[in-house]
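Quiz preparation item.
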């Protein structure tokens, strides 16, 4: 079984794959779009994609990719994100002049590095990738921010653990597939709909969901590129009764100009 991730071994996407699947072959993708295409073109059976962070919010372009390529969300996993400061062995923090990592990791750890003004923060495209680069090129005097898993894989020394400012930092990842599996064992769904551009249309749909005992856990809007001023709504809902869910789906189909089920899967508590 092949699983595509954005990033390389030791990345947070790789950690999710290890948590979610018992055994798999890893397909490393440099971008989210190449990840999606690998699943669409059946190079991999599954894809793992970050969709939301508790600090940074929704990763909006990824909603658009799932929709554009007609992929299905068949699972989710919430991962606690711990950022760790690492370098080649036998160095101390005063010897580190630069630290390279993903812009979001640098932002989330900026308070820690304010105590070390001699360290220059430099953006790179991925957390684990620069950790690998340090090892491959034997770069001394330079650090990376990455997972503990990355430090083990690339045999780097940990200078400080959990250096993020906000400790309760979680990212929600979704599991993507090309083809839908028939199952009744689900209690969460991801939906997309476009409504008439008139007053109260969204409120009417949300009230109907409440009447059907659906719990709205997420709502995200994206502009419809072809129609300025109109928006597509992406919502996540949970429910206890599939019958109530099916009833709500039928009503939304009647009310919406465009409607799509992006996925039906088991809800994972944070």
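Solution:
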């Amino acid at each position: 079984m092949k699983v595509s991730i954005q990033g390389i071994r030791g990345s947070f996407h790789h950690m999710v794959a290890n948590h979610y699947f018992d055994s798999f072959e890893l397909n490393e993708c440099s971008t989210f779009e190449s990840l999606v295409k690998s699943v669409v073109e059946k190079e991999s059976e599954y894809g793992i994609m970050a969709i939301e962070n508790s600090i940074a919010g929704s990763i909006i372009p990824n909603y658009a990719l799932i929709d554009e390529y007609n992929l299905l969300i068949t699972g989710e996993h919430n991962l606690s994100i711990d950022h760790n400061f690492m370098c080649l062995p036998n160095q101390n923090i005063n010897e580190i002049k630069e630290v390279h990592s993903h812009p979001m990791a640098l932002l989330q750890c900026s308070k820690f590095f304010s105590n070390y003004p001699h360290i220059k923060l430099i953006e790179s495209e991925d957390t684990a990738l620069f950790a690998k680069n340090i090892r491959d090129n034997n770069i001394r005097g330079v650090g990376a921010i990455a997972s503990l898993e990355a430090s083990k894989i690339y045999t780097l020394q940990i200078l400080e653990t959990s250096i993020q400012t906000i400790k309760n930092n979680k990212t929600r990842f979704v599991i993507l597939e090309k083809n839908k599996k028939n199952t009744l064992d689900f209690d969460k769904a991801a939906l997309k709909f476009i409504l008439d551009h008139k007053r109260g249309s969204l409120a009417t749909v949300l009230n109907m969901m409440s009447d059907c005992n659906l719990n709205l856990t997420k709502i995200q809007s994206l502009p419809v590129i072809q129609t300025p001023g109109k928006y597509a709504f992406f919502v996540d809902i949970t429910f206890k009764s599939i019958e109530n869910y099916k009833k709500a789906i039928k009503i939304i189909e009647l009310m919406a100009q465009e409607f799509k089920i992006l996925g039906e899967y088991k809800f994972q508590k944070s």
